[in-house]
Amino acid sequence: MSQAFTALQSFLLKSSGLSLDRDKQYLVEARLDPVMQQVGLKSLAELVARLEADRSLAKKVTEAMTVNETFFFRDRAPFDGFRDAILAELLNARARTRKIRLWSAACSTGQEPYSLAMILDEEARKLAGWSVDIVASDIADSVLKRAREGVYTHFEAQRGVPMSHLVRYFTKRKDQWAINQNIKARVEFRQQNLMADFSSFGVFDVIFCRNVLIYFAPEQKRNVLARLARALAPDGYLVLGAAESVIGYSTEFRPHDENRVILTRRGRDEVALPRGALC
Q: Which of 6, 36, 273, 274 gets the highest tally of CB atoms within 10 A of its CB?
């Protein structure tokens, strides 16, 4: 393994939490080759040598190495859990304030927060008179630009979207589909690196942070989970990806009683479970 690759591993871990395996050098070369061509560099060594001094280049490298795989209503169970379990409980718990705040962290091109917005529209009668905010964030400006535009290819729009939703919430534009304005208006997009301080975002009732931590090194997972706990209301909900777990990384959460893909904050009076008892 070259010194340049080792230096790149260290840079990505520090800047974005991304843990890059030793056998991923082929992937690095494929993803960073367009960046090197764009800035006129001939080798990974030259690229790494400029990273610390060139913030613009560092940002390009981080964005190029970020995984942006996503689609509407991905894995379905978290969204069913949001509708059937989380919303029902929040409608009772927030009956006095009639306010709910959601955060879709690492939202990529926007399919996750727009899926949540569609569910909220479907539940509009129950939420009449309520204020429901959706904040969506990602580290990469390039994907946030696409998310704000809300325009998707035929493949992206059909991937996970029922035909009834496609007709109701999208407008056909030649070979593309655009999210309708009433759904777009529900989501506020912000640029945010999860490795950086996000305390200014405030406190949320629900945080979706799915299929992100699987790419982080152990210490970075612990760090992010600790700060996510502080950003979550005491009776709030954290939704992780199907392949993600808090075992060994946090004792702040426990599985929801009705839906195993949802985590809730531990009560102050709860006795911590053994590590293996967490989901």
A: 36
